[in-house]
Amino acid sequence: MSLSPKLAKLLNDQINNEMAASYSYLAMAAWFEQTPYVGFAGWMAAQSREETVHALKFYQYLVDRGAKVVLEPIGKPQHDFKSPQDVFACSLKQEEAVTAQINDLYEVAEKVRDHAAKNLLLWFLNEQMEEEKSVRDMLERLQLAGDDPASLLVLDREAGSRSTAPSSFKNGVK
Ligand SMILES: [Fe+2]
Ligand SMILES: [Fe+2]
């Protein structure tokens, strides 16, 4: 069964959305690199790699279904932030936007009765739930920490250990 042109177009768009998310996380990592928060820089760099893996997953899916891959330019990401809380709030907004994109994709896949594509998108919906949760949890704790340097450094260390955890992004597959 070949992909419907509409679904193929939207899956191509999603490659771009995931690469834009990856680029945006890289800008967040770069912002943290200019601060003492090395752990958060590592977290954002790991997120960036993870989004690239997502883009490649959509790329490979299109290839496997015999559809054409068309790459579009990626916009300039936001590069300036007010605080660690501000960065994580932006990250959460970004994840919520991606969840909405995948939801829309799932609806189109359902409409054209492409059950194989639904299966792929279901994986992404679960992934989005996890990502939103980990960002939301960290944001809530950052808000509790406020401006207290000791609390912020504890969270930074925790974020740093997460970014090197074996489950996070190693080998480019999940
Ligand atoms: Fe993603
Ligand atoms: Fe994500």
Written account of the structure:
This protein is mostly helical and 174 residues long. It has one domain: Ferritin, core subunit, four-helix bundle (Ferritin). Helices cover 75% and strands 0% of the residues. α1 runs antiparallel to α2 and α1 packs antiparallel against α3. The protein is elongated. The C terminus is likely disordered. It binds fe (ii) ion (2 copies). The site of one fe (ii) ion (FE2) has 5 residues, from α3. The site of one fe (ii) ion (FE2) has 5 residues, from α1 and α2.
Quick structural summary:
The protein is an all-alpha fold.
Number of strands: 0
Overall pLDDT confidence: 93
The secondary structure category is: mainly alpha
For the biggest sheet, the summary is: none
Please specify the SSE layout and strand pairing.
Elements lengths: L4 H29 L4 H27 L19 H28 L3 H31 L3 H15 L11
Helix pairs in contact: 1-2, 1-3, 2-5, 3-4, 4-5
Bound molecules: fe (ii) ion (2 copies).
The site of one fe (ii) ion has 5 residues, from helix 3.
